[in-house]
Design brief:
By secondary structure, the protein is α+β, with helices and mostly antiparallel strands. It contains 10 helices and 11 strands. It has 3 domains: 72 residues, no CATH class; 126 residues, no CATH class; 30 residues, no CATH class.
């Protein structure tokens, strides 16, 4: 239903949905559109049956904003899982044309011997075509940060975030790495610049991690002035400030000072 609606550029609303029935109508039902579908479970035969179906939408297609609501991980899974089951080696570029996957492995080493016939996962960078296209119309700034993985596997997820003209945010690049260090940040930021942010005069917002500092200050990295400017994330600054100064008012003054747009405001 979601994939059908995405292809048609239409939106629907769910009226009933449980283990025995599913009933949806076009969001414009009653305003010139009569599309609906009702299905129910035939327990005797163990199948779902379409009980009523008004087949064609008679409304105008809605805006592309419906993708935000409909194209969730359930819809993506329904589209990609059959391809993976048919061929487990299928590439991301085939499943999602235009995507940029950069995969790195390391050889298996037993003692002092290296086994070149097998390898293990090391790092992975990826981004999607909508992220690349969207950033061209967003503010020339990116926020980068990392977060630990808390599931079965160790590692760190690095993410770059962009901001639109109306302050909406969107993640534009991702990387799975072994941890936050100079090498992993260099891997992430170099591919971020290569595939998404090649334009000059870019503002980079981050915490004070030494790995980020080393990458942005490297002479051959392309992040030096005037290509890029760096500023620190106020949330991280305030968190560090609060370790030594417990006064809530002092933290508020610090935040206000960092957001001041004039020298007078800053000193006040």
């Amino acid at each position: 239903m979601k994939i059908y609606s995405i292809h048609g550029g239409v939106e629907y609303k769910v009226l009933e949905s449980d283990y025995h029935k599913y009933y949806v109508k076009c969001k414009e039902f009653g305003n010139g559109c009569t599309w609906l579908i009702r299905v129910s479970l035939c327990q005797r035969r163990g199948i779902w049956e379409v009980k009523r179906y008004n087949s064609l939408h008679t409304c105008l297609a809605t805006s592309i904003s419906i993708y935000r609501k409909i194209l969730d991980y359930h819809a993506i899974l329904a589209f990609t899982l059959p391809m993976i089951r048919a061929d487990a080696a299928v590439s991301i570029k085939i499943m999602m044309p235009g995507s940029v996957p950069v995969f790195r492995t390391c050889p298996v080493q037993v003692g002092r011997q290296v086994n070149d016939s097998s390898a293990y996962f090391h790092r992975h960078f990826w981004t999607f075509p909508p992220c690349i296209e969207t950033f061209r119309n967003y503010k020339p700034l990116v926020s980068v940060d990392g977060t630990h993985l808390y599931g079965k596997y160790d590692g760190t997820l690095l993410v770059a975030i962009a901001q639109g003209r109306n302050s909406n945010i969107i993640p534009i690049a991702f990387a799975l790495v072994e941890g936050e260090n100079a090498e992993s940040w260099s891997f992430f930021l170099s591919h971020l610049q290569q595939h998404i942010t090649p334009q000059p005069v870019l503002l980079v917002i981050s915490d004070r991690h030494n790995g980020i500092k080393a990458t942005l200050e490297a002479s051959d990295g392309g992040w030096l002035l005037p290509n890029a400017y760096r500023t620190f994330c106020i949330r991280h600054v305030v968190a560090n400030f609060a370790l030594s100064f417990k006064d809530n008012d002092a933290r508020m003054f610090l935040v206000n000072a960092t957001y001041a747009k004039t020298e007078i405001e800053f000193h006040y």
